[in-house]
Design the sequence.
């Protein structure tokens, strides 16, 4: 029996990979396959984030992040409503606790307006408690378009729709290599070989390695950062109504330690942001010699470490010393105490880093012969996934000649 040839093979069944498959399935009749290393979809970044539907407040107007977040947020709400996926447009509060944070919060307010956010409001200190009774701060931004959802459930629904349209999702197939032929690509997983005319790399934490194995120089390296969370005990959940964020440091792509109401009713506090010694390492002691050597011998990381060593050490201190973590939380909610917190989960962010130490902040999608590589898709990629998927589908239809 001759081997089936797919028109497009997508590597990675996280939310960006599945959204891309879904958008392609809605556009073309050609055969699509998705291969995923793990035995279920949404196994890594998608399934280990806080479930926030971001509004588009933080991102530079005109950037891919800003455009895709705003359109993706609208599409995500519509998708959840259409398929009865539990979600809540609950809004969030960004709180300034020091005078020196006010200029950055003003910048956020202007960015939000430039990105078309509706209902954005500047709150005085006395107005904060109308929205979050246990918060203390000197000013705040109310962002009503922010929401919450379970992105694993969203991704599972995307996978169902792709399969119902006649396409295939292969779980437990880790990408190993690619060989180019005149009229096809030979893609080898650890379980079988696939033939495809085109490839889309949505490999997340492995995206740079996949690109190199495909003969493409990504011009960057994925450096993993682990974000660790605490859960708030059920009897203290009343301290957090919805979402409470600090004013972020604009030098970093992380949003700072915050409080999140989950769609299942739970409350989380975190994350910190520490260098992970394993790309898929979700505990403090996860370690991969290969991953660690790649990070510590990469010139970009050495530049970054030299510049932000003090900040990095402070994050590690907070990771291993719970009172320091609690102190950071108490800036927003003074009532929170160490005994109110239980160990929670963790996520690993695939942070793209260039050789000069530049933290790649915007989405980065690179085209190559018969291939598209998604090399940087950090937060708000889950929020923006349907928009990113539409963008990639448009690129594929145009450049691959699909129909």
Sequence:
């Amino acid at each position: 029996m001759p081997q089936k040839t797919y028109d497009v093979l997508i590597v990675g069944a996280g939310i960006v990979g599945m959204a891309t498959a879904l958008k392609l399935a809605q556009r073309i009749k050609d055969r699509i396959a998705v291969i995923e290393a793990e035995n279920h979809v949404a196994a890594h970044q998608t399934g280990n984030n806080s479930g926030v539907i971001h509004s588009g407040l933080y991102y530079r107007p005109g950037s891919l992040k800003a455009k895709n977040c705003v359109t993706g947020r609208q599409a995500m709400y519509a998708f959840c409503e259409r398929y009865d996926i539990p979600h809540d447009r609950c809004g969030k509060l960004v709180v300034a606790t020091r005078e020196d944070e006010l200029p950055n919060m003003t910048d956020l307010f202007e960015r939000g307006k430039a990105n078309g956010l509706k209902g954005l409001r500047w709150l005085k200190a006395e107005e904060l408690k109308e929205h979050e009774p246990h918060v203390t701060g000197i000013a705040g931004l109310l962002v009503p378009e922010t929401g919450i959802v379970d992105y694993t459930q969203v991704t599972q629904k995307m996978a169902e729709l792709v399969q119902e349209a006649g396409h295939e999702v292969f779980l437990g197939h880790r990408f190993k290599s690619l060989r180019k032929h005149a009229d096809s690509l030979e893609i080898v997983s650890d379980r079988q070989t696939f033939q495809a005319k085109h490839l889309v790399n949505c490999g997340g934490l492995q995206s740079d390695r996949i690109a190199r194995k495909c003969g493409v120089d990504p011009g960057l390296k994925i450096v993993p950062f682990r974000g660790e969370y605490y859960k708030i005990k059920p009897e203290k959940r009343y301290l957090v109504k919805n979402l409470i964020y600090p004013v972020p440091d604009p030098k970093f792509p992380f949003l700072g330690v915050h409080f999140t109401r989950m769609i299942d009713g739970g409350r989380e506090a975190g994350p910190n942001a520490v260098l992970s010694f394993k790309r898929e390492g979700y505990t403090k002691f996860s370690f991969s010699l290969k991953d660690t050597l790649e990070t510590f011998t990469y010139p970009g990381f050495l530049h970054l470490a030299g510049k932000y060593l003090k900040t990095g050490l402070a994050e590690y201190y907070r990771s291993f010393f719970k009172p320091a973590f609690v102190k950071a939380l108490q800036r927003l909610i003074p009532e929170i105490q160490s005994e109110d917190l239980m160990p929670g989960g963790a996520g690993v962010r695939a942070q793209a880093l260039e050789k000069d130490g530049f933290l790649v902040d915007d989405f980065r999608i690179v085209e190559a012969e018969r291939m598209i590589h998604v090399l940087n898709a950090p937060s708000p990629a889950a929020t923006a996934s349907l928009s990113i998927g539409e963008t990639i589908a448009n690129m594929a239809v145009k450049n691959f000649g699909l129909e």
The longest helix spans residues 299-320. Residues 17 and 202 are 5 Å apart (CA to CA).
